[in-house]
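Posting for a labmate who doesn't have an account.
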Amino acid sequence: MAAPSRPELIEHLIRTRIAGEVATPRENNLAHYRELANGNRYYWLGLELGDRWNDEQDVLAVMAERCGVDGDPEHRQGQDTIDPELTVDGLDRAAALLRKAAQDRQRVLVATGHPGGLLDVHAQTAAALSAVGCELVRVPLGLTADEGVVAQLAGVAMYERGATLWHTHSPQPMAEILAALPQEGEELPDLVIADHGWAGCAAQFGIETIGYADCNDPALFLGENEGTLSVCVPLDDHVINPRFYEPMTAYLLDTAGLAGPSPLV
């Protein structure tokens, strides 16, 4: 697929509701911000936020700035938004890290807690980095987490349970990988590309991390705000057709110099 221009991509993001007026309702967003502020670690996505974000209005302010949700605390119900300009800005920052990874032949780990939505985005990114000589981390066999196993398909680590790939926010699968690699005599990754708790855990571990996050998952945006997470790309992480992400992926890889028959070397 040919990469769209920035204006073309923004139009596509709005039309497919990856950004713009997204499907996630305002009340769901605010409920998650409140849970995070109240110390519910499920919503911390593997980051250690301490007591720094115990006011949900502070969380909302960051989400308005970095994700593009409505910053009005009196807007309690109905439609909420992701700013498509911020989505593309995040892709541009992510592309700069991918370009550096390619130039330096970095060791990269790619993972997703959203296989129903973002698997192809991650798989194409992993394939493009592998094609220019980056080493993709191979997940050690036999790792278990949350009553399931850590699987790896198409270069992407995921959570499997009952022979099914599961949506998960848990940081535990990534924690198991990062604990197992040194025990196997393997180095930790230089760069992680992930989402949900996979991204938060890696960032908390001190690894340079690109994370994708929806407007109801504030922790990764707070991590970027604090400098723990390198890049957080705002988007609806599970739209009705995963093919809708293809232009976005094409833009990302093209901007990183990883697209076409002669990618950056």
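Reply:
Got it, the structure tokens are right above this. Residues 1-259 form one domain.
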